C-alpha cells in the first residue's frame, strides 16, 4: 500500500520537528508547511528549511502572510518580549507572545493544501502541558477545528473521506517531547525556539520559549545542542 500523504505544520521548533518525525514514523508521506508571517524570530524559517530536508519532506511549502499588519503580539508588533518569567507565571494567563488566531490561520492553509493533495491528515505540534498558555493549543480547540474542517471541505461534504487533525504531542511534557524526538532521530541542533534572537545570532535564553526548552532538555537528561546567550 502506498503511504498516505499528510500535511505537517513545521515552524522550525523542536515540537513541530518531533511532530513531523512522528508522522513519518507512522508511515505517512509528510508535506511540510511553514509560514513567513512577519514574526520577530524569522530565524526559525531557516531551521524549518533544514529540518524539512533532513527529515525527508516530500515537499516544503513556505507561505508569506504579513500578520504585522494586524499586530497585537510581541512576535508581530513593537511590544517587548517577556523575559525571565517563572514556570508558574507562564502557566497562568495568556502572554503577549500569543499571536491572535495564529493556529486557526495556519490550520486553514494546511486544510486547503490537504484538499489539493487529497490528504486526509494534518499534523500539528501543539502542546497543552509545558506551554505558554495559548488558547489555540488546547485539545478542545483541535477537536473543534477538526469538526469544522469536515464541514468545510468538498471531500467531507461528499462523504468521500474524513480529515483528521493529529496532535501527537498535546498531552506530553516538554521533557517527553524531547525524549520522543530523540528516539525518532530528530537533530535538535537544527531546531530553533527563541522568540528574540540576539544580534550575535544566539538564542536569548530568557524568553518563555527558551525557558521551556531548557526545562525540557534538563528534565529529559539531555544536552541542548543549540547554544544560548545565558
Short description:
With 230 residues, the protein is an alpha/beta fold.
Structure description:
It is globular and about 55 Å long. The N and C termini lie far apart (49 Å). 38% of the residues lie in helices and 12% in strands. A 5-stranded parallel beta sheet has the order 3-2-1-4-5, with helices on both faces. β1 (4-9), α1 and β2 (28-36) form a beta-alpha-beta unit. The model has no long low-confidence stretch (mean pLDDT 94). With 230 residues, the chain is of the alpha/beta class. The protein has one domain: Rossmann fold, CATH 3.40.50.
Q: What is the element layout, followed by pairings?
A:
Elements: E1 4-9, H1 14-25, E2 28-36, H2 43-55, E3 59-64, H3 87-90, H4 102-117, E4 121-123, H5 139-152, H6 154-158, E5 164-166, H7 174-183, H8 208-220
Parallel strand pairs: 1-2, 1-4, 2-3, 4-5
Features:
230 residues, alpha/beta, Rossmann fold, 5-stranded parallel beta sheet, 8 helices, 5 strands, 38% helix, globular
Low-confidence spans: pLDDT under 50, at least 5 residues? Answer: none
**Globular, elongated, flat, extended or rod-shaped: what is the shape?**
globular
Order of secondary-structure elements: EHEHEHHEHHEHH
Strand content: 5-15%
- What is the terminal-to-terminal distance? 49 Å
Q: What is the name of the CATH superfamily?
A: HUPs
Tell me roughly what share of residues is in helical segments: 25-40%
Amino acid at each position: 500500500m502506498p503511504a498516505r500523504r499528510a500535511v505537517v505544520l513545521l515552524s522550525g521548533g523542536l515540537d513541530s520537528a518531533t511532530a513531523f518525525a512522528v508522522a513519518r514514523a507512522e508511515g505517512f508521506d509528510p508535506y511540510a508547511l511553514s509560514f513567513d508571517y512577519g514574526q520577530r524570530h524569522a530565524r526559525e524559517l531557516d531551521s524549518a528549511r533544514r529540518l524539512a530536508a533532513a527529515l525527508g519532506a516530500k515537499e516544503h511549502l513556505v507561505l508569506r502572510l504579513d500578520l504585522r499588519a494586524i499586530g497585537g503580539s510581541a512576535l508581530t508588533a513593537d511590544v517587548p518580549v517577556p523575559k525571565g518569567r517563572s514556570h508558574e507565571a507562564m502557566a497562568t494567563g495568556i502572554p503577549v507572545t500569543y499571536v491572535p488566531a495564529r493556529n486557526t490561520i495556519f490550520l486553514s492553509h494546511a486544510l486547503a493544501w490537504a484538499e489539493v493533495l487529497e490528504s486526509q491528515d494534518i499534523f500539528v505540534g501543539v502542546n497543552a502541558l509545558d506551554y505558554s498558555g495559548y488558547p489555540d493549543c488546547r485539545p478542545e480547540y483541535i477537536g473543534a477545528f477538526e469538526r469544522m474542517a469536515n464541514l468545510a471541505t468538498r471531500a467531507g461534504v461528499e462523504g468521500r473521506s474524513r480529515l483528521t487533525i493529529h496532535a501527537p504531542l498535546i498531552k506530553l511534557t516538554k521533557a517527553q517531547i524531547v525524549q520522543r524526538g530523540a528516539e525518532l532521530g530528530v537533530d535538535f541542533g537544527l531546531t530553533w525556539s527563541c522568540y528574540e534572537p540576539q544580534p550575535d545570532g544566539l538564542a536569548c535564553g530568557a524568553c518563555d520559549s527558551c525557558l521551556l526548552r531548557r526545562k525540557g532538555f534538563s528534565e529529559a537528561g539531555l544536552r541542548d545542542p543549540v547554544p544560548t546567550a545565558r
